[in-house]
Each structure stands twice: as structure tokens, then as C-alpha cells.
Design goal:
single chain; alpha+beta; Tetrahydropterin Synthase, Chain A; four-stranded antiparallel beta sheet; three-stranded antiparallel beta sheet; 9 helices; 19% strand; rod-shaped
Length: 375
């Protein structure tokens, strides 16, 4: 039983609420109309009687009515459209932009409004220098036949093979549809032109070691050019997948790299030895210079001290020559006697020496009492 045949509890029919219910009700009415026209009349006893021949004009009218009903159904069907999640709909009315609709069910005027659906969440990708044959966790790539895209010339006249990808999505559906005829081809042409110029302005070694910086520069310039064209796309990623020399020169390139690595290794070893020896030699030289300065200062100070000491003694000697002489004698003996093993005192009247004191048994201890001497 259809929705139209269901009745509420109070016995009145419910009016259709949705466009699908209206279409179902209209189709049922047509079916009932044509079934009543073609149904044979039956008698009260159950025997059927042949139907009377119909009017030809009435048959044509029924056909026209059927065609009109089909056209109305088609118009009703064309009046409603559905936008899926992730898509937007651009509606043109008589060729002019009317509106942009989001996901859901919407209405448009048949034969007047034209609908264009655009997926704005899909990430579109363009590959240069290779093609993905079976994308996935274990992707396979085909590089043959794409040398014209990947071969480039660097600033130092070296040939290099560059493979890169460009990912983008639609940011302005109207511009994407109507401002540029072939947005995909525009992205490919502009990206290839910018990448060749960026690579061509740099040396070979710089390109090999700074692919991320070059990709960022290429992305910035590519987005600026597409904005100028009003392409309606936003660049997500420009990534250099592979940067290598061409296959015929790879062996020579590898030898050059090995030689370059050996040279860098030797330079690093020489710098290491230099950093060990030269600073040490400079430190030793500075140490010797400082020691020489210190020795010179010490000798000068010592000489000045001895001079001042001599002048002071001379002054005292002039004041009291006898006392100063004796004091100097005693001080000299005090310094000399601790290092003497034996002391002999010889009297003028004696013919042989007379030992006075055995310092070895007294462990070099000498009385501090001064020796009395006559004048």
C-alpha cells in the first residue's frame, strides 16, 4: 500500500508532504485513469460484454495527456537536485552566475537554470618526470618516456633529472569552471616553467642539498601565477621526489662525489690536526713569553731590592762602622755555620789544629752566643 492510501485514524486522507509523494500520487492517478479506460464492462450475472468502439479523438487526447504528464514529471524531476558532501553546486541562470549551493537537496528552475557540480575536497595531483602505475602502500612508478619533463639544466651547465609532484584543490568553483578552459593543463605548464627557472638559477650542488627550499619557492611562485589567472585552485604541496643526474653520466657523477667526499674528509682531518697543534703551540709560546716577562720583572725587582738594601746598609755603616761591621759578620756566620760539618780554631801559638766542637755529634746545632774576639 502506498503512502497516499494510508489514512489517519479520523478517516481523512493525508495530503502529500514531499516531492516524492506528489510524484507517486500523480503516477497512481494516471494508472487508475488508463486502467478504467481499458477495462471491459461486466454484467450483473458475471458474463462480460464487448466494449463499445471508442472515439479516435478521445484516444489522441489521451496520448497527448500522457505525453504532457511525462513532460511534467521530467520537469519536476529536473527541478530538484542533490549535492553530495564535499561538493558544491554552481547554478547559472540563462548563462549568468546565479548562486553557489552547498551539500543537500535544492531546487532550480528547469530549462532556465544550469547546474555544475564541483568536488572541492578532492586533492588533485599532477606528476612530472614519472607516473604512478599502481598507487598504494607499495606503489610502482614508471619513469620511462618522461625525460622531456624531468631533464633540466643548472646554472653551472650541468644536466639534472628532476621528478616532482604538485597537489592542489579547488578553492573557487566558479573560477575553476569558467575562468580557465583547462585548469589541469595550466597547472602543469606553469609548474614546469617555474621549476625549470628555479633549477636553472642554481648550481648543481645547491640543487642536490636544498630541495626543500627550492620546492617552497616553486610553490609560492606557482600559487601567485594561478591567482593572477584566476584559476580558482589552491596549491597544497610542491615536492621534489627525486633529483639525480641522467643515467649515462651516473658512474662519472658517483666518482666525482666520492672524490669530493674524500677531499672533504682530508680537509676535516687537516682542520682537526690544525685545531689540536696550532692552539697548543700558541699557548706554549704565550706561556714562554709570560714567563720571560715574569722573570724580567722578578730580576728587576730583586736588583732594586738589593740596591735599596745595600744603600740602607751603607747609610747605617756610615753612621756606626764598627757595629755595622760586626753585625754583618755575625749574620754571615749565621748563614754559613749551619752548613759546616767541622769547625777548627787555630791559635797562633799552637803548632797543630785543635778541634773545638764536633758539629756532627751535635747535629749541627751551634750556640747562638757570639764568639768573643779581641780587637
Amino acid at each position: 500500500m502506498s503512502n497516499q492510501d494510508q489514512q489517519p485514524p479520523w478517516g481523512q486522507k493525508r495530503n502529500p508532504q514531499t516531492p516524492e509523494e506528489w510524484v507517486a500520487l500523480f503516477i497512481k492517478k494516471l494508472q487508475d485513469y488508463f486502467s478504467d479506460a481499458n477495462k471491459s464492462k461486466t454484467s450483473g450475472s458475471g458474463q462480460s460484454t464487448p466494449s463499445q468502439p471508442g472515439n479516435p479523438v478521445a484516444g489522441i487526447g489521451k496520448i497527448l495527456t500522457f505525453i504532457l504528464a511525462i513532460l511534467i514529471l521530467q520537469g519536476i524531476y529536473a527541478s530538484f537536485y542533490k549535492i553530495s558532501p564535499g561538493e558544491v553546486g554552481v547554478v547559472l541562470r540563462l548563462g549568468q552566475y546565479s548562486r553557489t549551493t552547498q551539500s543537500g537537496l535544492h531546487f532550480k528552475v528547469p530549462m532556465i537554470d544550469a547546474l555544475y557540480k564541483v568536488d572541492v575536497q578532492k586533492i588533485r595531483k599532477e606528476e612530472f618526470g614519472f607516473r604512478s602505475r599502481s598507487p598504494g602502500q607499495q606503489s610502482t612508478f614508471d619513469r620511462s618516456g618522461f625525460e622531456m619533463e624531468s631533464l633540466m639544466l643548472t646554472a653551472d651547465t650541468n644536466v639534472i633529472n628532476v621528478a616532482w609532484i604538485v597537489q592542489y584543490r579547488v578553492s573557487d568553483p566558479f573560477n575553476f569552471l569558467f575562468k580557465v578552459k583547462d585548469v589541469r593543463q595550466a597547472v602543469r605548464d606553469i609548474s614546469e616553467s617555474i621549476t625549470r627557472r628555479v633549477i636553472g638559477n642554481m648550481d648543481f650542488d645547491y640543487v642536490l642539498g636544498n630541495r626543500d627550499l627550492l620546492a617552497a619557492d616553486a610553490k609560492k611562485e606557482l600559487q601567485a601565477q594561478l591567482n593572477k589567472l584566476e584559476a580558482g585552485v589552491a596549491i597544497g604541496t610542491v615536492q621534489f621526489q627525486d633529483i639525480n643526474p641522467p643515467e649515462p653520466v651516473k658512474p662519472a657523477f658517483n666518482e666525482v662525489n666520492e672524490a669530493d667526499q674524500d677531499m672533504k674528509r682530508l680537509v676535516n682531518e687537516a682542520e682537526e690536526t690544525y685545531n689540536k697543534i696550532i692552539p697548543k703551540a700558541r699557548g706554549n709560546a704565550k706561556k714562554m713569553i709570560e714567563e720571560a716577562h715574569g722573570y724580567a720583572v722578578a730580576r728587576v725587582n730583586e736588583a732594586q731590592g738589593e740596591t735599596e738594601r745595600f744603600l740602607a746598609i751603607l747609610k747605617e755603616y756610615k753612621n756606626a762602622p764598627q757595629v755595622t761591621r760586626r753585625r754583618m759578620y755575625l749574620e754571615a756566620m749565621q748563614k754559613i755555620m749551619p752548613g759546616v760539618a767541622s769547625v777548627y780554631v787555630i791559635d797562633e801559638d799552637q803548632k797543630s789544629p785543635l778541634p773545638l766542637l764536633n758539629l756532627s755529634t751535635t747535629q749541627g746545632v751551634i750556640s747562638s752566643k757570639p764568639i768573643q774576639q779581641g780587637n
